[in-house]
Amino acid sequence: MNSSARLDLTFAALADPTRRAILARLATGEASVQELAEPFAMSQPAISKHLKVLERAGLISADVDAQRRPRRLEPQRLGEAVDWIERYREIFEQNYQRLDALLDALQAKPARSRKPKK
Amino acid sequence: MPKPAEVTSPSDRDVRVTRTFNAPRQLVWDAHTKPDLVRRWQGYTGWDMPVCDMDVRVGGTYRWLWKNLEDGKQFGFFGTFTVVDAPSKIAHDQYFDPGDLGTTMPTGDPCVVSLELSEQDGVTTLVCNLTFASKEARDGAVATGMTDGMEFSYTRLDELCVKEAA
Predict the structure, then answer these.
(1) What pLDDT digit, counting tens, does each position of B81-107 carry?
(2) pLDDT by residue (tens digit) across A11-20?
(3) What is the CATH architecture of B14-165?
(4) ipTM exceeding cut-off 0.90 for this assembly
């Protein structure tokens, strides 16, 4: 899967409040499906469906060895999603810092006439 | 120094960038619409901008091309202005020209770029909205092509930032 397809899965998975809440819960430590279902007014199958989406997106993983199959957060994929926005920010910011310098230079010229600018 | 650019994604096809500048709106407008000013800031560290043609009127076209100073590789953007309302609003559609960069960024459908400028007490706020043809194009633009060419310059940018911070 290429990085674009991966990001699609990640953002689709994040575009749901229940799934974000599940991630927030897992950020504090691993939990079983039953434990994850408790705080939500949802059946275990409904939660399992959400977990499958998160798993497919690589945001969480299941410990297949343990009997209660606890889910845990996979922070790397979440990092990639944050990185996506951050990349845009870096590109624009890099440009805008040059624009700052240009605007300063352009404004420095008329200031020589000592005319107060509004 | 102005606050760093703020980036949000208001929908799955949009990217919105907000930034303030310590300059009057007219000047920020000029810096976006006059080619000799545009080429002085728009680009990427380590890249020259040999082509910056802009016919700033509704229906007018523009063409930007960057050339890597080290390996001579080129890429750019081109498109047509759809809104020109000086000095507050300008919009254009934008096609990616992969040049010889060989990126995987989608090149078919344009991205609609709109820019709004407002001024208060000599400080200009710029809101730049990019609407991509699809969510895939939005993610792809930055995940692949848009950053492939810039990756080279990141180390140099880091060096610059360290210098600036010192």
Answers:
(1) 999 999 999 999 988 887 776 554 555
(2) 788 878 788 8
(3) 2-Layer Sandwich (3.30)
(4) no
Q: Quote the CA–CA distance of B63 and B166 in Å, as a whole number.
A: 38
User: Amino acid letter at B142?
Assistant: V
Three-class SS of residue B85? strand
Domain locations along chain A = 3-74
Encode pLDDT of B125-151 as tens digits.
Answer: 999 999 988 877 776 666 544 443 333
A13 to chain B, closest Cα gap in Å: 13
Chain B residue numbers with beta carbons less than 8 Å from the beta carbon of A8 are 135-136, 139
Class of domain A3-74: mainly alpha
- Where do the domains of chain B lie? 14-165
| 3-state secondary structure at position A70 | coil
Q: Residue range A23-35: average pLDDT?
A: 84
Tokens of residue A44, six digits: 């275990």
Judge whether B138 and B112 are in contact, CB under 8 Å: no
Query: Tokens 């420095």 sit at which residue?
Result: A108
